[in-house]
Amino acid sequence: MQQINGNFYKKSIISIDQFDVHDIEIAFSLADSYRKDLGKGTVFHDLEGKILTALFYEPSSRTFGSHIAAMQRLGGSTIPIQGVTFSSVSKGETLEDTIRVFASYSDVIALRHPDEGASEIASTYSPIPIINAGDGIGEHPTQALLDLFTIKSRLGRTDNISVAMVGDLKYGRTVHSLAKLLSLYKNITLHFVCPKTSPMPTDIVSLIAKRGVVTKTASSINDIINKVDVLYMTRVQKERMDLKLYESIKDLFILDAKLADQMKKKSVIMHPLPRIHEITKEVDDNPRAVYFTDQVKNGMFIRMALLKMVLTKR
Ligand code: NCD
To answer: How far apart are the first and last CA of the chain?
Structure first.
């Protein structure tokens, strides 16, 4: 996996491990300028003539839609492929063939795949950049970037933040990438609130602890609700466990309006979506809730920035 090192051109984006704080600032500053310019009604031509293949082997609406919107907003076009049925690609053969074909048609591929590591494997034989749009229980780097961009926009900082990650921390890939991303900053505390069967993977916990993140576990949202700057809710990943286990843990951690009201005034409630029932509907109107507003919009701006940078020289 290539480090970004200040230069995104022709690089695949596979994991948060490729980024340092400087790379993140570059991406955020471009995303921010797209956000401002689009707000003024600018029509962009940055990627005219370029084609994105959005190759999604797992269900998705937001991540899929936002990659397509990002490419089209920049004047590029898209080959949208969703709901592909496939046989196991653990040997890489089927995926390899597919990637080869679409690399001949397009300039960049956003890949979502049920196998952890699939994007990294694809990037080793793809002649064009791969953007990991979620690889099984592995990572979701573009989501983590849009999450941190949202946190920065709302709180005005990336250091000195206390975050609670709630839900399925084992199978949810967004929290894996976000925990690693936050660990690049100073004075970060992470509270894990999760079923015993779904803890944050130990390799991630030890990596971020080594980088100075204070990690704590709590047994309920109540215990941390008035302490945190960010409450990051996630759904239980039903499709990645047996039904019996799912039924036994799906209702353990639910954020309702009464709980949400106990949060610090200047704090944010986030969710990568889809929300199932872990946040009740009344919370949507809470001014701290950003999951249907800033987070969704910022996803497109971050993906615009990444597409522009992997496809053009600075
Ligand atoms: C997440 C994902 O696919 O990992 N959704 C998303 O990309 N917006 C979260 C989830 O599916 O729970």
So the answer is: 21
